């Protein structure tokens, strides 16, 4: 049964956030809010967490997972990014964008696209997400909480708890965070290709 954890949306309680981060270190799979919608999160090296995310969302091995980063220092360790792309990404974050880029050796092979060797990365503009990343001290493997056959992600903490009670270990609820996922921009070939129009304004990459 999942723990239901209520956290303040503007001033998240450090004790609560530290507790969730500690659970993640111990292998937990957590549903948590972001600046676009709720997501599923686990530690990058948590193989069981990855398997559970795949099962909940029924994902194949071509799905681009997202590595949620606190800042560019973390992002730069996970993907190869040249100066021109760096400037374009830097101008758009933090925000509701996911960028597809070639992964570095720091990224486990299971998280990379099998052919392209790419992965999604993003820096969120959400107080609770940033507090969790700061407490964890490392990027978070993440996937939008969009269930199979549904058009919109789950956005209410109580509903997530109700529907995924035996599939996740905790639900971190800081209130409604919307149903629109991130805008996804593929920079793996150098030029921006918009793969999905979402919460982030795509105009800067068109």
UniProtKB/TrEMBL annotation:
Pfam families to which the protein is assigned, alphabetical: Sua5_yciO_yrdC (PF01300)
A molecular-function term among this protein's GO annotations: double-stranded RNA binding
Domain YrdC-like, first and last residues per copy: 14-200
InterPro entries: DHBP_synth_RibB-like_a/b_dom, Sua5-like_dom, SUA5_domain
PROSITE patterns from the UniProt entry: YRDC
Domain of life: Bacteria
NCBIfam families found in the cross-reference section: L-threonylcarbamoyladenylate synthase
Protein name according to UniProt: Threonylcarbamoyl-AMP synthase
């Amino acid at each position: 049964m999942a723990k239901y954890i209520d956290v303040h949306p503007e001033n998240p309680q450090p004790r609560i956030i530290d507790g969730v981060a500690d659970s993640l270190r111990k292998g937990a799979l957590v549903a948590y809010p972001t600046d676009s919608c709720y997501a599923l999160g686990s530690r990058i090296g948590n193989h069981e967490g990855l398997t559970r995310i795949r099962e909940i969302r029924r994902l194949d091995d071509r799905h681009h997972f997202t590595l949620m980063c606190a800042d560019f220092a973390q992002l730069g360790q996970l993907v190869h990014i040249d100066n021109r792309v760096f400037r374009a990404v830097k101008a758009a974050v933090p925000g509701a964008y996911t960028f597809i880029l070639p992964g570095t050796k720091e990224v486990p092979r299971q998280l990379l696209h099998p052919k392209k060797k790419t992965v999604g990365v993003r820096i969120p503009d959400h107080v609770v997400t940033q507090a969790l990343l700061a407490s964890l001290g490392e990027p978070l493997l993440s996937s939008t909480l969009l269930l199979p056959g549904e058009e919109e992600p789950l956005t209410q903490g109580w509903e997530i708890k109700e529907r995924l009670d035996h599939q996740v270990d905790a639900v971190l609820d800081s209130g409604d965070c919307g149903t629109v996922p991130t805008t996804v921009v593929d920079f793996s070939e150098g030029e921006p290709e918009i793969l999905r129009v979402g919460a982030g304004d795509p105009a800067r990459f068109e």
